[in-house]
Amino acid sequence: MADKKVYMDYNATTPLREEVRDAMVRDLEIYGNASSMHSSGRLARSRIEEARSSLGALLGAPPGDLVFGSGGTELNNTVFHTMRRLASEQRPPFQGRSEIITTAIEHPCVLNSAEYSRNQGLKVHLLPVDSAGKIDMEVYRRTLSDKTLFVSVMAANNEIGTIQNMKEITALAKEAGALVHSDGVQAVGKIPINVEDLGLDYLTMSAHKIYGPKGIGALYVKKGAPLYPLLEGGHQEKGLRAGTYNTLGILGLGKAAELALSCLGEYQERTGALKAYLREGLLERIPNITINGHQEDCLPNTLNVSFPGAEGESILLSMDMAGIEVSTGSACASGSLDPSHVLMAIGAGPSLAHGSIRFSLGWYSTREDADYVLEQLPPIISRLRAMSTLGE
Length: 392
Prior knowledge:
Layout: E1 6-7, H1 18-26, H2 39-59, E2 66-69, H3 72-89, E3 99-103, H4 108-119, E4 123-127, H5 137-143, E5 148-152, H6 166-175, E6 179-183, H7 195-198, E7 202-206, E8 217-221, H8 247-262, H9 264-285, E9 290-292, E10 302-306, H10 312-321, E11 324-325, H11 341-345, H12 350-354, E12 356-360, H13 367-387
Helix pairs in contact: 1-8, 2-8, 3-4, 9-13, 10-13
């Protein structure tokens, strides 16, 4: 194993920023249950509300419209659980609505929630995307109807980084009378997000994608939008999410949100410049490669590259031995031998999809890191292609 370590898997998870870690260490003494009325409980509650305000500022959301939970998977499931309840109850103004629209490139927790909803009797439409990962808007317009209950579209894709036009997507859904949700886990903290400007009813985010702690996230719920709790129990979060408050996690999330908002421009500039440098270097040094995703409407930190003639898992393991940590796609799909559903949806084909690597950069990525990748990766690809039976 190499002595040097280069981490380029920030879309899977981020390390705690130093400021977040220091704040959480200071807050270890805040041990009171935020639901208790004594002074320790009131202190915990007041700090939680400060964190809620910091997150509201990042999302452009009234703090009171935010519900804390364990992260993106739970909160995305909560929204789909709500839609199933609405479809079964058929109360005004949702009578006659039992269809869900989502896309073929969503995160597995959304796709699996959609499939479960289908098994429960709802009709689910999976929108196709073009070769850059953008929704086919003509198909979307034709799919919307007075039977559409709910539209769920991720703001930015976790594998290829393509950013969707959520404002237009939401406006069309609203014309049809549908509710709109966006999985914003990969977008929040990387691009400007204002939920009120976008017109969303729901947006999900997760702290560990913005240099905060794992096990905590939040769901924006527009005032008046229905929400049924996935977890039944106590009165926490206005009865919308039961369970003792993860006070330390919430405070870490608040600090991470504060930093993300204040440093957003610098983050975009730094990661965008480094991604461009890495991209051009790979194109110069390695023949016959494909850059996946939209080349303009894309997260500043995300670069997905296919290496025909080399298998992705072999590339990943060889890079890991050189001290470079990357991904072949979504961390939640690791262990699967199937090609990336995202790359298949954009028409890459099984061979190309199997030979793809996601480089996702972050605050601690450097030019030296990129240079090391550009030094180590070309001979790895050359060696694997020489050994491969796939052919380029």
